[in-house]
């Protein structure tokens, strides 16, 4: 039994080290949070900028740091948190930016983002099975059009 395990391990290691650079570049990466298969090329962006996606695609990129572009349909403010809901009002929104009350002052009047197309940059995470991005500073968001 030990010999079989050793043989399997040896074969796996040999196949791993025998891949050429071209083979390694074409290997697909399976996301651990979704069944989506992405190519290594999907992550490459020229000039060191983060990749830009639409807010409706954010669900495919949980765990990735990138720029998300979309329409802010609603801004909800409470004592503890502010939510910028993208494309549609909660609960039908496709993506949310979360700003905690302690950081909200850095952003100025957050209601001004409602009805605007914006870009937000940061790490896409998941909360209650929906994609979100936590914004810590105003530098992470910019209005791109009305």
Walk me through the structure.
The chain has 146 residues and is of the alpha+beta class. It has a domain at 53-145: Nucleic acid-binding proteins (OB fold (Dihydrolipoamide Acetyltransferase, E2P)). The protein contains three helices and nine strands. The strands form two sheets. The chain has a five-stranded mixed barrel. A hairpin with a 2-residue loop joins strand 7 (117-127) and strand 8 (130-134). The protein is globular and about 65 Å long.
In round numbers, the mean pLDDT is 80
Fourth-level CATH superfamily of the domain at 53-145:
Nucleic acid-binding proteins
Strand residues, percent: 35-45%
Please provide the count of β strands: 9
Count of helix runs: 3
Please bin the fraction of helical residues.
10-25%
Task: Give me some keywords for this one.
146 residues; alpha+beta; OB fold (Dihydrolipoamide Acetyltransferase, E2P); five-stranded mixed beta barrel; two-stranded antiparallel ribbon; 3 helices; 18% helix; 38% strand
Write a compact overview of the structure shown.
The chain is α+β, with helices and mostly antiparallel strands and 146 residues long. It is 18% helix and 38% strand.
Secondary structure blueprint with pairings:
Blueprint: H1 2-17, H2 21-26, E1 28-30, E2 37-39, E3 52-54, E4 65-77, E5 81-86, E6 95-100, H3 101-104, E7 117-127, E8 130-134, E9 141-145
Parallel strand pairs: 3-4, 6-8
Antiparallel strand pairs: 1-2, 4-5, 4-7, 5-6, 7-8, 7-9
């Amino acid at each position: 039994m030990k010999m079989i395990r050793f043989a399997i391990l040896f074969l796996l290691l040999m196949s791993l080290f025998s891949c050429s650079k071209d083979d390694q570049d074409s290997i697909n990466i399976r996301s651990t949070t979704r069944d989506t298969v992405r190519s290594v090329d999907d992550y490459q962006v020229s000039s060191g900028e983060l990749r830009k996606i639409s807010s409706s695609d954010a669900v495919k990129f949980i765990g990735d740091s990138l720029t998300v572009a979309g329409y802010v349909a609603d801004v909800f403010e409470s004592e503890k948190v502010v939510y910028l809901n993208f494309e549609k009002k909660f609960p039908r929104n496709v993506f949310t930016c979360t700003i905690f009350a302690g950081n909200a002052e850095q952003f100025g009047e957050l209601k001004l983002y409602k009805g605007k197309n914006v870009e937000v940059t940061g790490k896409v995470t998941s909360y209650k099975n929906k994609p979100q991005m936590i914004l810590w500073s105003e530098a992470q968001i910019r209005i791109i059009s009305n």
